[in-house]
Specification:
Blueprint: H1 4-12, H2 17-29, E1 41-42, E2 45-46, H3 51-66, E3 71-76, H4 86-94, H5 102-109, H6 117-128, H7 132-137, H8 141-149, E4 167-169, E5 172-174, H9 176-187, E6 194-201, H10 206-224, E7 227-234, E8 241-242, E9 260-261, H11 269-273, E10 279-282, H12 295-324, H13 329-341, H14 355-366
Parallel strand pairs: 1-2, 3-6, 3-10, 6-7
Antiparallel strand pairs: 4-5, 8-9
Helix pairs in contact: 3-12, 4-8, 6-8, 9-10, 13-14
């Protein structure tokens, strides 16, 4: 099934023939559904913090940073904006100037409220010789949309979401990249005044990201009194998935070459594993709000961070006690309750384990990365 050229290509990606066979086997057999035991509720997967506990978490977080704790913002930013504009693409491909769908009617009714409107208006004047109002008056709405999404205009259909003009701000507009920079300055500045932020980007967009970072970082540094250390990485080719035909045989292009597709965001776990920091905040590129609405985001990021630090301190203390051998059965019971009540890790067979087996079980369950998510209600 695989020829010598195929093997050379997949080895360059860091993939083995055995991995390809496993992918093909999965396509043929299908993927099993996730077995869900129950929904998460308060006390069973969800922890509800009191106002006092929230304040303690914020204080813990601030103390963690002041004491030299390391933190990094990890931002998956490789996604293109094409899906955001699928209705606009459909409008252009439909070939009719007059908006027929509710979406397109709303789009043109509110077009001046978009953050990108001033740039789009200038683009229309530069390329088409007329502003947006004039084009709409002449029933040339399709030309306006083309100037937004197509390469001869602003090319928003081909750009990554991180570089789009996303929000209006008092002195102009902000892209998601800029919002993430500001967020980092507000809750992830270390004791040296540095914000570490990592973007995963697509290779074809690396130059555009570097250009915007070079232009915007000095501005944000000056405004917030911080320094940024910005790094980038690509989704690893070794996580690519082979494309197949309808009969689950490998698809080949006109030149007979195998076609691979990038895996989803889950594949970025390998990029995340390369980050060396005590705490890593993970947040997608377009999950941002403008500054006027960001206070609640900053507050709960600090709460989440502080809660995580508190859990980790307790875990470290428990592991140290187990490793010392100076623990009692009451200590182990306390640790089991911590696993149940704080980490929501339950194993009904713990009552059947002797003391040494129970200690090994507890240590194994404690010695894992902790993931904390926050929901504001």
């Amino acid at each position: 099934m695989l020829n010598s050229e195929d093997i050379r290509v997949i080895k360059e990606k860091g993939i083995t023939p055995e991995m390809i066979e496993e992918q093909l086997a999965r396509f043929k057999s299908g993927f099993p559904f996730l077995k869900i035991k129950s929904v998460a509720t308060v006390g069973d997967g969800i922890t509800r913090l009191t106002a006092e506990e929230q304040n303690n978490c914020e204080t813990t977080w601030n103390n963690f940073l002041s004491a030299g704790g390391s933190v990094e913002k990890f931002v998956p930013a490789s996604g293109a904006a094409s899906r955001m504009f699928k209705n606009l693409f459909a409008f252009v491909s439909g070939g009719e100037n007059e908006p027929k769908t509710d979406f397109m009617k709303q789009f043109f009714a509110q077009i001046e409220n978009f953050a990108f409107y001033p740039t789009l208006n200038e683009t229309c004047k530069k390329v088409l010789g007329k502003d947006i109002k004039s084009l709409i008056a002449e029933n040339r709405q399709i030309d306006v949309v083309k100037m937004l999404i197509e390469p001869e205009g602003m090319n928003y259909g081909g750009l990554p979401k991180g570089l789009l003009q996303f929000h209006k701000v008092p002195n102009g507009v902000h892209s998601p990249l800029e919002e993430h920079l500001e967020e980092g300055a507000q809750y992830a500045t270390d004791s040296k005044g540095t914000v570490h932020i990592h973007f995963t980007v697509s290779p074809e967009h690396e130059a555009e990201f570097k250009k915007m970072i070079a232009a915007k970082v000095p501005q944000v540094e000056k405004e917030w009194g911080v320094k940024f250390e910005v790094t980038m990485s690509f989704q690893k080719p070794s996580t690519d998935t082979i494309a197949v035909n309808m009969d689950n045989t490998p698809f080949r292009d006109e030149d007979g070459k195998l076609l691979f597709r990038p895996a989803g965001h889950g594949a970025l776990i390998e990029n995340l594993n390369d980050i060396n920091a005590d705490v890593v905040f993970v947040k997608n590129i377009d999950n941002v709000v403008p500054r006027k609405l960001r206070d609640i985001t900053v507050k709960y990021k600090k709460i989440i961070g502080g809660y995580l630090v508190m859990l980790q301190k307790q875990i470290d203390a428990y592991i140290k006690k187990i490793d010392s051998g100076k623990y009692t059965i009451e200590d182990l019971r306390e640790m089991i309750h911590f696993l149940h009540d704080r980490l929501y890790t339950r194993y009904v067979g713990t009552k059947e384990l002797d003391d040494s087996e129970l200690a090994l079980y507890v240590r194994k369950k404690l010695n894992r990365p902790i993931r904390v998510c926050g929901v504001v209600k």
